[in-house]
Structure formats: C-alpha cells, structure tokens
Specification:
binds zinc ion; binds ligand AHE; 23% strand; binds nicotinamide-adenine-dinucleotide; 17 strands; alpha/beta; 12 helices; 2 domains; Quinone Oxidoreductase, Chain A, domain 1; seven-stranded mixed beta sheet
C-alpha cells in the first residue's frame, strides 16, 4: 500500500513529505494506522546527525498511537480494531532481559531495531525501489506503519489518540524515571535539569511521589511558569546564578539540621554532559542519586571526580522510564483517563503532517512543550 510519510532523507535537513510504499505485516507483525504522533527531542537528536545509530533515509517518530488494521501470521496478542501505542522498548517476556526482572530493556529485537529493519532483517518501507529505514522500531511519522507484535501495547478504546500518543515516550519516561528508576519517597528533595517535554513529566512524577522540594533548572525563563504548573517549588536559571551552579543548588537544599546539603534525587533531562555532571554533584553526600535521562551526542562522555561516587552519590540511567512497556503503558493510559496525571496542557501545538517541520522549529526555539501531529 502507499502511505503518507515525512521522510528524513539526510541529517540536518527538513523532513520531506512523500508517498511511500509500505509492505504488509509478515509473521509476528501488525499493521497500525497511526492516528497521532508526538515529536520528541530524540527525533531531533537523530535528525541532527548526533545519533551514532542514525540511518538515512528513514521515517522517524516513536511517540504514536493508532489502530491495528491488519495482522501477520501467528499474531495472537492483538487483533484488528485494537487501539495500540507503538513501543520502542518492546516487552517479549521471554528474552534474558525480560526474564531477569532487573530491567525493562527487552533485547529480543534490539539489534534489528537499531539497524532500521524489522526482526527478519528487511524493511517494510520503500520509495521508488529504494529502502527507507524504520526508526526505533516505530516510524510514527507515517499514517500507517508496521511493528512487531511485541512492540505494541493494547490500550482502552476511549483514550484520545492525540493525547495518549505522548505516553509512547515523554510521559512514561518522565514519570517512570521517578517511580521506577529512582523510586522517590515522600518528603524527598529533587532537582530537575531541563523543563521540556520530559522534565515536566519528571516534575509531575515527583508530585505523584509526594516529593517535598522540587527545584527546576532551565536556561529558558519561560519554563518557570511551566514547572510551577506541574508542582515545581523553586526555579533556577543557571545563566543567572553566578559561576557555581552546583554550590547554589546545594545551598538551596540545606536546612538548619543538615548543613551538608544536596538533593536526594536529581534528573538530567537535557542530554548535555556538563549538566549531567552538575546533576550528579548536586546530589547529597552519602545517598543522593542522579538519574540520566537525556541522550547525548555521539562521542560525548560524562566525567566527574571518582570522589563524588566514593562519597556515596549514585549515577543511574533510565530508558523509557524503566517501564515494562506492554504491562505498564495501558496502566499509564488508565491514570490519564482517571485524572491521576495530566497530559493536555503539555500538548502546546497540534498540526497536520504537512507542518511537521514547524514542530521541530518550535522545539529548537523552546516555544513548545510537545507538538502532536494528527493524521
Ligand atoms: P526538550 O527540547 O523539550 O526540552 C529540553 C529542555 O532542556 C529545554 O527546556 C531547554 O531549555 C533545557 N535545556 C537545554 N540545555 C540546558 C542547559 N544546559 N541547562 C538547563 N536547561 C537546558 O526535550 P525533551 O523532549 O524534554 O527531551 C529531553 C532529553 O531527554 C533529550 O536529550 C531526549 O533525547 C531525552 N529523552 C530520553 C529518553 C529516555 O528514555 N532516556 C526518552 C525521551 C527523551
Ligand atoms: N541511538 C542512541 C541511543 C538513544 C537512546 O538512548 N534512546 C533511548 C530512548 S530515547 C527516547 O526518546 C533508549 O531507549 N535507549 C535504550 C536503547 O536500547 O537504545 C545512541 O546514542 O546510540
Ligand atoms: Zn522520545
């Protein structure tokens, strides 16, 4: 079939709308009509050329929601008509990683996903006979896509696609980083670096976890009101507090009975390795944990004095918020439908596929929190 897609032909160039050929689902695969997709900073990271795994041409997008319209042979867990969220972190429940119960990072199809193809090693997308790569196993910047059955989560049918698509990455990543990875306890002090589409979800996760002090750090002052909207208690613009941001943040967390200071938990939601270091070093001596969420460019490395770790600070990373995708995503959709979490106000822009490059511009300029394309 022919589908409408925004194709990334080259790094650093705008996406181009094209009619692309999509072959039907093979064994274990499903064809999904994508109804809506968010645009995450990771799409921009790959489009910019900073992603060491970036492949071109490709159909980007990994934050979608849609309907199963066909199934390949052997598919048993979803059927035509089911509403689903595509999963860049699948959940096969059979691989060593899933069976370990120690990680959400299913490894069943990670190698082919990173190579931009389906698990059988081929792509379903082509244009004039030329292969177009899949992206993160999702490729939601097209009105139809093919995914492995283990890479879709079945969700309730009354959930609006144009909102719950965000659960396909940003919402789950931010809230999950707090609840699954850090396991923040009530009364905790936390610092969130980067108040974009991920950081604001970390903030709402911290509110859910009943954190006491939630400091947001962003170089864009417009983000102060955004952070406060979701539970941030203090805002710091790093360009306005002098040369030692870490000392400034540690001072903010001191109390009369604790003159050491430092946060119980910090979260990097910027992808900047200098910020990652600051986030670690702003943790409390002895127990503070810093969670790396941001994705850094090829070749970037993090550094700190080992002393920071010797004295009990912990550096952790998280992908998709540590969520076991097929199990947890339907529950997060329920949380949204029950009003336990907010999504609507974070979706600042909605547009047709034809305007998708504007979504990237809005993100780069810091004007949007999340843009969503509806098909
Ligand atoms: P975004 O562009 O919406 O937000 C980034 C925010 O960080 C902006 O508000 C920006 O002003 C702020 N910022 C940038 N540099 C800063 C600095 N030096 N100091 C303070 N603030 C700074 O991006 P997003 O969609 O929220 O994504 C954030 C990061 O998380 C990206 O690196 C993205 O690739 C990554 N990400 C990771 C996962 C995961 O599973 N680990 C999932 C989704 C996104
Ligand atoms: N290709 C990048 C890795 C990017 C990365 O870490 N991606 C996250 C999800 S970001 C979603 O917005 C992830 O899931 N990581 C686990 C994994 O297996 O990729 C690079 O740097 O090579
Ligand atoms: Zn993402």
């Amino acid at each position: 079939m022919d589908v409408r897609a925004a194709v990334a032909f080259q790094s650093g160039k705008p996406l181009e709308l094209a009619s692309v050929r999509l072959d039907g689902p093979r064994a274990g695969e499903v064809l999904v009509e994508v109804k809506a997709t968010g645009i995450c900073h990771t799409d921009e990271f790959t489009l910019s050329g900073a992603d060491p795994e970036g492949l071109f041409p490709a159909i980007l997008g990994h934050e979608g929601a849609g309907v199963v319209v066909d199934t390949g042979p052997g598919v048993t867990s979803v059927a035509k008509g089911d509403h689903v969220i595509p999963l860049y972190t699948p959940e096969c429940r059979q691989c060593p990683s899933c069976l370990s119960r120690k990680t959400n990072l299913c490894t069943a199809i990670r190698a082919t996903q990173g190579a931009g193809v389906m698990p059988d090693g081929t792509s379903r997308f082509s244009l004039d006979g030329r292969t177009i790569h899949h992206y993160m196993g999702c490729s939601t910047f097209a009105n139809f896509t093919v995914l492995p059955e283990i890479a879709v989560a079945k969700i309730r049918k009354d959930a609006p696609f144009d909102k719950v698509c965000y659960i396909g990455c940003g919402v789950t990543t931010g809230i999950g980083a707090v609840l699954n990875t850090a396991r923040v306890e009530p009364g905790a002090k936390a610092i969130v670096f980067g108040l974009g589409g991920i950081g604001l979800n970390v903030i709402q996760g911290l509110r859910l976890a009943s954190a006491d002090m939630i400091i947001g750090v962003d170089r864009n002052n417009d983000k102060k009101a955004w952070g406060e909207r979701f539970g941030m208690t203090h805002f710091v613009n790093p360009t306005e507090v002098g040369p030692d941001l870490v000392a400034h943040l540690v001072n903010m967390t001191k109390t009369p009975t604790d003159q050491i200071g430092g946060a119980d938990y910090t979260f990097d939601c910027t992808g900047n390795v200098t910020v990652m270091r600051q986030a670690l070093e702003a943790c409390h001596r002895g127990w503070g944990q810093s969670i790396v969420i941001g994705v850094a460019a090829a070749g970037a490395e993090i550094a700190t004095r080992p002393f920071q770790l010797v004295t009990g600070r912990v550096w952790k990373g998280t992908a998709f918020g540590g969520a076991r995708s097929r199990t947890d995503v339907p529950k997060i959709v329920d949380w949204y439908m029950e009003g336990k979490i907010e999504i609507d106000p974070m979706i600042t822009h909605v547009m047709p596929l034809a305007d998708i490059n504007q979504a990237f511009d809005l993100m780069r300029s810091g004007q949007s929190i999340r843009s969503v394309v509806t098909f």
